[in-house]
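Chapter review: from sequence to fold.
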Amino acid sequence: MAKRSAEETTNDGVPLKSGERPQKVEKGTEEADFEDEFEDEYESEDEVLEAGVDGRPDEDREAEEKDAMDVDKRTFIPGRDKLQKGESLSPDSSAYEMLHSLSTVWPCLSFDIVPDSLGESRKTYPATLYAVAGTQAESRRAKDNQLLVMKLSALGKMDRNQDSDTESDDSLDESAEPILETKSLPLSSTTNRIRAHQIPAADSSHPATTFTATMLESAELQIHNITPHLNSFDMPGTMVTPQESQPIATIKVHRSEGYAVAWSPLFPAGKLLSGDNDGKIFVTAQDPGGKWTTDTRPFTGHQGSVEDLQWSPNERNVFASASSDGTVKVWDTRSKSRKPAVSVAVSDTDVNVLSWSTQTPHLLATGADDGRWAVWDLRQWKPLSSTAGAAAAPKPVAEFHFHKEQITSLEWHPTDDSIVAVAAADNTLTLWDLAVELDDEESRDTADAKDVPPQLLFVHYLEDVKECHWHAQIPGVVVGTGGGGFG
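The token string follows.
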């Protein structure tokens, strides 16, 4: 499957089709004027009132504007419908609480959101968030690759009162230009996958410690401590030394490149999984002395590349893997055999991504190369028999084939166990609500759109989208990245 694209684009938007503006409506025959003794006194004023703001009668202008809006009422769905020559997509501000786009010098096809100390469940604007990303420079300029540590601030709400003559101080703050601050760390190769992990601060006088794990195209796994870089954003005068931008550990146990990296949420000191194209999975952990050690005995069992990894949100020794062999396997790190405890064939194509629900730990979502994504009840998955090697064949509790290209990312909402964000190679990032019932009368109304599941909440256009993540501290905020930048 094609995981990376070096093409640089800067397109980002929302599926709303705009039609051509029609010609002006011809005026009809003027009505006869009645003589009035005050005609000379009021005629000029009457004409001004009738003419409106552009010299034409209000009725004519309103009719023209109505005709222009009625040019095309068809629902446009990116990934399915095609733009005609001269057409373009533009965002509908009424559909968004907040919408911003960001382009970098080189595409960043993997990123992660970094937790911060600004509070939980934030709903005020302008918003601030921190993130990390890895670049994908052209092959001949591999040495230009960087790990980017970013602070995005002054992220305002959508301006829906553009016609208002007066604005409050709050609205002016919310509509201020966004600010991007970055710190870059050198990388010797393209980033296939990057994930962040944070160790909580021991007390309020010290910042949390933040690590990143970066899986490179060169097959190296690099671990960086980006705490100084994050501190420099909010502590004026803080200097980051060149030494602090070097990796604190470089893992070289993989013999082929990989795309799968996952930090355990249940090991605060730092424990991570990494998988490669040879089907091998390794565990790396930080010991009490601060040294990073990799167990050189890999977990094996996949017949294809390991595409994604996820730790169980509530069992510290359990993790799941997705593979190009079409299976998802569940493992126990205490197993001496280093073999999977459960193996299920979930697709006839590559299984690219998976996401374990943090709110309902028996639910696992998977996304495949054929555009299908599904939700599985792990309570229905049975352990492999000691005598039979065949995988069990449970059925998904929900399955969707709305996307027509490969699923590139999916993630459960951090606090709502029915909401899922899905990214696909059809240039769309979609939001889904699994709580919507199939027999719900209201859910059947999809306007003139055909074959649209009632669970589909939202479709956002993002060029060559590769990854999407929810912000756990800002409800409803989801960020995506792709060849066209961030959105």
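Two observations follow directly from the output. The longest strand covers residues 146-155. The two ends are 24 Å apart (CA to CA).
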